[in-house]
Amino acid sequence: MLFSVTIFGSVAADNSDQKLKRLQEEIDELQSDLGGLRSRRDAEQKELRATEKKIGRLVRSLQELDLKQQKQKARLRELQKQQLRLEAEIKQQHYALTAQLRTAYMTGRQEYLKIFLNQQQPQKIGRMLAYYNYFNQARIDHIGQLRSRLAEIDQLSAKIERGRHKIAQLAEKRNHQKQALEKSRRARTRILAALKQDISKGGNRLEQLRQNEQQLKGVLSRLEKARVEEPDKSSSLFNRAGRRLQWPVKGRIKARFGSPRTAELRWKGVLIDAAEGQPVQAILEGKVVFADWLRGYGLLVIIDHGSGYMSLYGHNQSLQKETGSLVKAGETISMVGNSGGNEHTGLYFEIRHNGRPVDPAQWCVARK
Q1: What pLDDT, in 10s, does the model give residues 26-38?
Q2: Which of 55, 94, 183, 305 is 20 to 30 A off residue 130, Cα-Cα?
Q3: Which candidate, 273, 306, 296, places its Cα nearest to that of 195?
Q4: How many Å separate Cα 108 from the centre of its chain?
Q5: Which residues, 6 or more positions from 252, have their beta carbon under 8 angstroms from its beta carbon?
């Protein structure tokens, strides 16, 4: 059974992608409508969104540069090994050629002269001449092989030099990206301080949390409307998984589903304490229907698993998948962070069925 057919019909895939693109535009409008950008706090939220998205792009870019550097260094090591092997082979051939030349010198022209002057066995002359011609041809072949190996050494040396230059370029680019990342992080710290000051001056945190939840509800509602269901709805992936899914990250659960968040609000998912940069893995195969920044949730990934089930992964440092991507269970979709204006790193994780939040602990078990 093909993976793409498991979640979405192949005929409807293109239409689904087009719907997702239109949906993303609607979600952008939704974020603007709810924020309104009418107050300083809304302007700061907009700036926070731009800054955290930039941080996410820079982190992902640095990861890609690190991977390129690792591959380039591995290639350079392999070229250097080839160079050492060739140099050893050249040394052996050089010894062999030296021995041949020494033998040729010792049995050189005087042997030819003896052959012609020795009339006792004239029948051996032709045979001896053929032997010496063969000996000389072998010497010429060795010289040709030596020249060929020396040419290979020159080519490898040029490749090694280009490899070193490429690594230096990647290192320089990485340094620029790292400086840009640090600058963006300092900007984020400044924005968060301003937001905190505004809230302390009379901002209503409960109102902000409600607004964030309302925004997420609006996004999920639009995703539900844009959904393209699989032909066979008789058995969902969740049911086939047998309620033994792996948690998306390793870590201690700081806030459990249904526990109080404020005096009036409860957690609709779980907050997992995890280290910054830790890979976040999809709990099941599905299709990424949202991969963007959302107020209160930061860089957020939403995966549609079919049959009304969705999983949500928030507060990421960077996103590894784009909207419309098909993912497999256990595949890395993002990196743990503290986006969304959080001071501490961790992953916010939800499971929803037909738009309603369900306890992830009913489905997920501890990682081995």
Answers
A1: 666 555 554 444 4
A2: 94
A3: 296
A4: 66
A5: 272, 273
